[in-house]
């Protein structure tokens, strides 16, 4: 197969941002005469991107032409993590990887190999082709739990599917509620449309989050909750709606399963009850309820913050239920939206090799990689050890929870690891073979926007360095060496994969997108707003979710069962303390929120992003700082049962007493002791379908001793 398809010379290229952000921005890229990229802009003629992109992607050339970019394959020449490498030819590197996989399989069985990936690129071909190799070879399965499960589950158990009102309708709203996302930092296009509503219609913007962040600065009403208490606010707001007559009883009678049962359940969920739980005042809760209750065109934009707490599925469902109690779905510019992921309906069976799936092969939880690699029997599903890995599109030594276990696992002398990457990440530093990867403007791929409604083409715009290779190339070459290259789905180029996937999905081909750039798949108004009924068999919204029985996105295989304390999940929306509740030994709640200039661990390698973020710090409320005799810039220590680390203090009233926020994700080595914030985060699987609760940690805090 060809390593890369030829490109046409042009001065302006059109593509899509490949990163793990719901915006999936349509991009315009200046192309220089010498075959390099210049300025990157948002596409003005894409109605969602509307010409606006985040600053970190706008300066993408800094990343593409970074002097530290990996350009040649490398073999480890010393101890793991010692930083000793020798260059190796591509064929030799691929031979060594294949031989390691074969050896592991011969001794321990095929499940000893665990291909591991995630969302470093959201391109369908470059991200998901690794699954085809996994299934063809019967390697251990991959349960991708780290990002979406809790929020997706809570939303779908209410609506029956993962879609909602057109995100562009925010511009037509009279009240935009941005709940559980720091959109200015992580989904800038949400603000494009929300601010348009404010400017053109006088709409109010409400922001609900756990600290005073840049999105809060745009708010007409800013509500700062204690972490993990979103459901209490939602329940009290619904209580007030029933109490004051702003609940739409006629709408609920037609479209909801048990409004009378919900109303009875909410009788004691008063503002006073919620104030004690959330840290908000009764007046704040009443004001919020009055605003959304009297504003029919209220658009609830529900973010991925819900996925970062152990009770996130319950909190998402409760916030979502508020739109149903108010009947907001009926109006243009109203309703509740989290993701449009279900509208695209890609048929990826050939791309991912689903015909080769063997239900007897174990499924390992991505979030529990530390436990898997250190031999935890439950995490291994009581099977044999993982002995060999190929890692693409992710950096688990930095981003995965229980970081000490993760690093301990990667340091095993008997574990073979190959990493295909752009930079020498902290995961690559612990590998045996490191392969250099293309970036998104150097290969063909196709994308879809979870936070919007477009399928977008990402064609190759510039030639890659001659020594780097695509993800697809690596998968294809390993397939040849591992004896599965003759299986259906292998031997195809990126463009062929795209054409075949799109044809199987009833959608246009690559040539269409070369001309049109994108395809808008937003469903009709009635479907998007569920005016023909919700997507459950009876057409009713579920105030009473079936937490275990209802189909849900990324639900674990039946053989794994449900995860976490499912018996404690509520019958109706309610506040449930499945979170790590602060206690006498751990009086603080720590959230590891995203920084504006990083995207997970991506962009932490670029100087501009690092300079803008400064250094790793933890935000501490002034009252807590005074009590503990902590001054601005002091080195403090944070810890819990998983470990402890030192970090600089930022004393600020952006956080409430008892709450700590450490924005990142900084590389581990950027911290004072070389250990990052995920030393403190847990990998226990939340109910009902797993996840990773990065913002849900009880910790102690004190001034660091020398």
- CATH level-two architecture of the largest domain: 3-Layer(aba) Sandwich
| Main sheet overview | 6 strands, mixed
* Proportion of residues in extended strands: 15-25%
Q: Work out the oligomeric state of the chains in this entry.
A: single chain
The CATH class designation of the largest domain is Alpha Beta
Count of domain modules: 4
CATH-defined topology of the largest domain: Rossmann fold
Trace the largest sheet across and list its strands: 5-4-16-15-14-6
Cα end-to-end separation? 58 Å
Radius of gyration: 25 Å
Q: Which structural category do the helix and sheet elements fall into?
A: alpha/beta
The coarse silhouette is globular
Report the count of strand segments: 25
Average residue pLDDT: 96
Percent range for helical residues? 25-40%
Helix segment tally: 23
Keywords: Iron, Iron-sulfur, Metal-binding
InterPro entries: Asp_de-COase-like_dom_sf (IPR009010), MoPterin_dinucl-bd_dom (IPR006657), Mopterin_OxRdtase (IPR006656), Mopterin_OxRdtase_4Fe-4S_dom (IPR006963), Prok_Mopterin_Oxidored (IPR050612), YoaE_C (IPR037920)
Protein name: Dehydrogenase
GO molecular function: iron-sulfur cluster binding; metal ion binding; molybdopterin cofactor binding; oxidoreductase activity
Outline the fold blueprint.
Elements: E1 12-16, E2 26-31, E3 37-42, H1 55-58, H2 60-64, E4 74-76, E5 85-87, H3 90-108, E6 116-117, H4 124-137, E7 141-143, H5 149-159, E8 175-179, H6 183-186, H7 188-201, E9 204-209, E10 221-224, H8 230-244, H9 249-255, H10 259-265, H11 271-278, H12 282-294, E11 298-302, H13 312-326, E12 335-337, H14 349-352, E13 363-365, H15 369-373, E14 388-392, H16 396-399, H17 403-410, E15 416-421, E16 433-436, E17 445-448, E18 454-458, H18 471-482, H19 494-504, H20 510-516, E19 518-520, H21 525-528, E20 588-591, H22 607-613, E21 617-620, H23 622-627, E22 635-640, E23 643-651, E24 659-661, E25 697-703
Parallel strand pairs: 6-14, 7-13, 8-9, 8-11, 9-10, 11-12, 14-15, 15-16, 20-24, 21-23
Antiparallel strand pairs: 1-2, 2-3, 4-5, 4-16, 17-18, 18-19, 20-25, 22-23, 22-25
Helix pairs in contact: 3-18, 4-18, 5-13, 8-11, 8-12, 8-13, 11-12
């Amino acid at each position: 197969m060809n390593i890369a398809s030829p490109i046409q010379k042009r001065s302006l290229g059109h593509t899509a941002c490949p990163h793990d952000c719901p915006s999936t921005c349509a991009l315009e890229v200046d192309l220089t005469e010498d075959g390099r990229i210049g300025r990157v802009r948002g596409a003005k003629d894409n109605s969602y991107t509307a010409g606006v992109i985040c600053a970190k992607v706008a300066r993408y050339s800094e990343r593409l032409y970074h002097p530290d970019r990996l350009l040649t394959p490398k073999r480890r020449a010393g101890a793991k993590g010692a930083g000793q490498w020798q260059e190796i030819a591509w064929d030799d590197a691929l031979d060594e990887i294949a031989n390691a996989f074969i050896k592991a399989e011969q001794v321990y069985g095929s499940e000893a190999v665990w291909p591991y990936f995630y969302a470093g690129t959201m391109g369908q071909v470059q991200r998901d082709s690794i699954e085809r190799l996994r299934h063809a070879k019967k390697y251990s399965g991959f349960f991708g739990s780290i990002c979406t499960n809790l929020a997706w589950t809570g939303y779908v158990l209410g609506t029956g599917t993962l879609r909602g009102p057109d995100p562009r309708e925010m511009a037509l709203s009279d009240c935009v509620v941005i709940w559980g996302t720091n959109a200015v930092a992580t989904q800038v296009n949400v603000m494009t449309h929300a601010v348009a509503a404010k400017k053109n219609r006088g709409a109010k913007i409400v922001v609900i989050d756990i600290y005073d962040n840049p999105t809060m600065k745009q708010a007409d009403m800013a509500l700062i909750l204690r972490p993990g208490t979103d459901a209490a606010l939602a329940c009290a707001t619904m209580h007030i709606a029933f109490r004051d007559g702003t609940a739409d009883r006629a709408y609920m009678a037609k479209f909801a399963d048990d409004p009378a049962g919900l109303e009875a359940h909410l009788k004691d969920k008063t503002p006073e009850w919620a104030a004690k739980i959330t840290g908000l005042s009764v007046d704040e809760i009443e004001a919020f309820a009055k605003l959304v209750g009297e504003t029919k065109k209220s658009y609830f934009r529900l973010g991925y913050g819900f996925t970062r707490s152990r009770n996130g599925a319950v909190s998402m469902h409760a916030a979502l239920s508020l739109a149903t109690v108010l009947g907001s779905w009926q109006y243009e510019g109203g309703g509740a939206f989290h993701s449009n992921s279900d509208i695209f309906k890609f048929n990826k069976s050939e791309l991912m090799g689903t015909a080769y799936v063997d239900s007897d092969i174990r499924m390992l939880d991505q979030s529990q990689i530390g436990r898997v690699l250190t031999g935890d029997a439950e995490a291994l599903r009581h099977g044999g050890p993982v002995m060999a890995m190929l890692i693409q599109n992710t950096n688990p030594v930095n981003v995965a929870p229980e970081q000490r276990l993760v690093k301990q696992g990667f340091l095993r002398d008997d574990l073979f690891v190959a990493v295909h990457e752009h930079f020498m990440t902290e995961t690559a530093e612990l590998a045996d073979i490191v392969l250099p990867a293309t970036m998104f403007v150097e290969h063909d791929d196709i994308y879809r926007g979870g936070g919007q409604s477009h399928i977008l083409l990402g064609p190759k715009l510039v030639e890659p360095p001659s020594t780097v290779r695509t993800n697809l190339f690596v998968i294809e070459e390993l397939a040849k060496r591992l004896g599965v290259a003759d299986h259906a789905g292998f031997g195809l180029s990126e463009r062929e994969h795209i054409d075949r996937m799109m044809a199987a999905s009833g959608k246009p081909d690559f040539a269409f997108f070369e001309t049109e750039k994108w395809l808008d798949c937003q469903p009709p108004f009635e479907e998007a707003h569920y005016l023909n009924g919700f997507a459950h068999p009876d057409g009713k919204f579920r105030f009473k979710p079936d937490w275990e029985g209802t189909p849900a996105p990324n639900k674990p295989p039946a053989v794994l069962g449900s995860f976490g304390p499912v018996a404690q999940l509520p019958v109706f929306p309610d506040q449930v303390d499945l979170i790590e509740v602060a206690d006498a030994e751990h009086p603080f709640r720590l959230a590891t929120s995203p920084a504006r200039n990083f995207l997970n661990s991506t962009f932490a390698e670029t100087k501009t992003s690092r300079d803008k973020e400064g250094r790793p710090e933890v935000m501490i409320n002034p009252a807590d700082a005074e009590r503990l005799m902590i001054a601005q810039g002091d080195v403090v220590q944070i810890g819990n049962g998983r470990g402890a680390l030192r970090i600089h203090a930022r004393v600020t009233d952006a956080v409430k007493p008892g709450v700590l926020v450490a924005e990142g994700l900084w590389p581990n080595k950027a911290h004072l002791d070389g250990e990052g914030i995920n030393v403190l985060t847990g990998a226990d699987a939340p109910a009902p379908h797993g996840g990773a609760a990065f913002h849900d940690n009880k910790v102690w805090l004190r001034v660091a001793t020398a």
